[in-house]
Amino acid sequence: MHPQIRRLGIDPGAKRIGLAISDGEPAIACAYQTLHVTSLEEAARQIAERAQAESVEELVIGLPLQLSGVEGTAARRARMLAKAIGGLTAAKIVLWDERLSTVAAQRAMAQLGISVKKSRSKLDQSAAVVILQSYLDSQSDSPCGASLNPPDLYLDAPGAKSGRRQRRRAKH
After folding, report:
1. Domains recognised in the chain with CATH numbers
2. pLDDT digits (tens, 9 = 90+) for 5-64
3. Which listed residue, 15, 66, 135, 160, has the most CB atoms within 10 A of its CB?
């Protein structure tokens, strides 16, 4: 059993950033906050402040890859956010494949009878919960916790490469 550390899940968006938090045993992600984005620098500052205030040791930032696994504009923006946050905090930063996290959050909200149109900020928080819970599940000792994300998505890993380059290299 790994010691429990406090983590913050981040669903980066162009207008809003959803946050989820986790600590304790069992490791369960809970909705935390929604930030309204004015600039990348301001978003990074606010996230770093919250991480410090909550004694967060690890930030799990959703990396919105396209279904094909290719990085588009949103993924590049998430990487820039991760880099900006990394300059403001000593917490470990992990980029986590978040494909379909918003779809999963929309479905969960619909099952609960919550209108997505009336509650966009709750959708962002729910997507952050999906991202963080996926990461937490991959870190557990259970067979269900097998990681689906390549280990090279750790931002602070020495010599880390993007998952796309890693997969391309593996084909040769």
Report:
1. 7-167 (3.30.420.140)
2. 899 999 999 899 999 999 767 789 999 999 998 999 999 999 999 999 999 999 999 999
3. 135
Q: Which of 54-58, 75-79, 80-84, 124-128 has the lowest mean pLDDT?
A: 124-128
CA-based nearest residue to 53, from 70, 71, 32: 32
- What is the C-alpha to C-alpha distance for residues 123 and 32, in angstroms, rounded to an integer? 12
Strands 58-63 and 92-97: parallel
Task: Tell me if 140 sits within 8 A of 28, measured CB to CB.
Answer: no
Give the side-chain half-sphere CA count within 13 A for 50.
Answer: 22
Both tokens of 138, joined, read 């991959």
Distance CA 32, CA 75 (A): 22
Type of residue found at 139: Q
| pLDDT greater than 70 at residue 165 | no
Q: Cα separation of 138 and 143, whole Å?
A: 9
How far is Cα 36 from Cα 1, in angstroms, rounded to an integer? Answer: 37
Predicted model pTM: 0.74
Residues ≥6 apart with Cβ < 8 Å to 58: 5, 6, 7, 8, 91, 92, 93, 94
Residue carrying the six token digits 């590049």:
76
